[in-house]
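Lecture notes, continued. The same structure-token format from the folding unit now serves as the input rather than the output. Read the line below as a description of shape only.
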């Protein structure tokens, strides 16, 4: 059994816990066809105080939200073993359960816990995998998400995303006053941390490839007149650096896969164009030259090209251009509006905002066969962002966050517990590639 030690990330006061907690609701899709699995409540040593987080419940919630599993209700469990030698396989075979997860909180030393679990194959009568985690009170939830990731990968062959994070913006209105907040939270909406609070709009947050920094746009109020500016902020320290605040537009930052360059939209010369900024040297390279509006750049995963939105054909459509420049090629032709392109992690698909005459909806474009598939049916969707395994797309629908599976079967709504709008989401990369 492998041992994994979880270290609590250090956050400065700026990143303190806030009340903008997102609660995920399954609003579409069913568990029909999902893999049956039982998550048995974890055993606890009698001399220990119960931890503040229910590990088994978090794992159950994670797997349920993925839409890939049919979770057996706790009240239907034929037994509740906490160790493999306590499992009566015949009981589980009788109820048609092929897999179960068992675990225990094994020890508590100086406010830390040792958590052990096994994924048990009922048919073979043996554990498929087992891990031991050491976690403190602050990292119990992280340990649960890592358990979920291990189970998900073992049973689907795909890497899980339960240990990743999301960034999003909230807008609260009090009379004529507006307050904007930039939050980073776990992928399930828990543990929100405030990154920025301002009376100025915040938009276009973008994760660095290593997940340690976020680029975003807001306004520089220190100048005589407010100026739009691009900033990069470190997650762990809260330190932020202004990257661009030139005259006119400074917007839509997008990280290169190497983390050393940033594509962005500037209008310093009078027209909205795509530029690439070298973050090490400060050099700025203009990529597009067209009298139309060019904006919303997005790097391909191989770093060789970018896609962007342009109205050079009369209406907003998506184009592709080499990172070395040259002629841009139009790649969307269905519908009167296609914008906000986002590459899937494997580079084979684009998530985008599509309007074919029935409102703004999230769609996916297959870059090999050019097939466009609409994933949502609502009319005011925005800001698609792929999960790092490509299985889900996070987006906004009206004033709230939602997510949809890449096949459209599973739909989720992330409801916030404070009044206001939630917007501009972005799903983090994996933190340990």
């Amino acid at each position: 059994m492998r041992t994994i030690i979880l270290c609590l990330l250090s956050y400065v006061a700026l990143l303190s816990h806030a009340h903008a907690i997102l609660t995920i609701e399954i609003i579409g899709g069913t568990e029909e066809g999902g893999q049956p699995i039982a998550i048995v409540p974890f055993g606890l040593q009698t001399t220990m105080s119960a931890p503040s987080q229910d590990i088994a419940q978090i794992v159950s919630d994670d797997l349920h939200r993925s839409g890939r599993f049919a979770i057996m209700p706790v009240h239907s469990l034929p037994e509740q073993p906490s160790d493999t030698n306590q499992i009566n396989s015949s009981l589980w075979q009788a109820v048609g359960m092929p897999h179960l997860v068992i675990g225990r909180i094994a020890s508590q030393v100086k406010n830390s816990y040792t958590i052990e679990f096994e994924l048990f194959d009922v048919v073979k009568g043996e554990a498929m995998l087992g891990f031991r985690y050491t976690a403190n009170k602050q990292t119990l939830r992280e340990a649960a998400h890592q358990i979920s990731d291990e189970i998900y990968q073992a049973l689907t062959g795909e890497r899980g995303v339960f240990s990743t994070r999301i960034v999003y913006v909230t807008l609260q209105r009090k009379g004529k006053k507006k307050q904007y907040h930039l939050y980073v939270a776990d992928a399930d909406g828990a543990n929100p941390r405030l990154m920025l609070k301002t009376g100025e709009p915040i938009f276009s947050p973008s994760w660095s490839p290593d997940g340690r920094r976020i680029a975003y746009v807001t306004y520089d109020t220190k100048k005589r007149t407010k100026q739009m500016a691009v900033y990069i902020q470190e997650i762990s320290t809260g330190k932020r650096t202004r990257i661009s605040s030139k005259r006119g537009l400074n917007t839509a930052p997008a990280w290169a896969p190497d983390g050393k360059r940033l594509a962005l939209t500037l209008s310093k010369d009078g027209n909205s164009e795509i530029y690439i900024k070298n973050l090490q040297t400060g050099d700025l390279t203009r990529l597009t030259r067209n009298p139309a509006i060019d904006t919303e750049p997005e790097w391909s995963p191989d770093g060789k090209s970018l896609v962007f939105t342009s109205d050079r054909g009369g209406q907003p459509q998506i184009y592709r251009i080499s990172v070395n420049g040259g002629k841009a090629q139009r790649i969307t032709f269905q519908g009167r509006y296609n914008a906000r392109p986002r590459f899937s992690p494997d580079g084979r698909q684009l998530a985008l905002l599509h309007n074919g005459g029935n409102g703004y909806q999230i769609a996916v474009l297959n870059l090999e066969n050019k097939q466009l598939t609409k994933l949502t049916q609502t009319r005011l969707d925005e800001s698609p962002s792929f999960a790092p395994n490509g299985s889900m797309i996070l987006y906004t629908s009206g004033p709230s966050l939602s997510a949809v599976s890449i096949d459209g079967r599973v739909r989720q709504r992330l409801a916030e517990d404070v009044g206001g709008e939630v917007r501009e989401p972005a799903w983090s990369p994996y933190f340990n590639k």
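Point for the exam: Residues 165-427 form a domain with the Neuraminidase fold (CATH 2.120.10.30).
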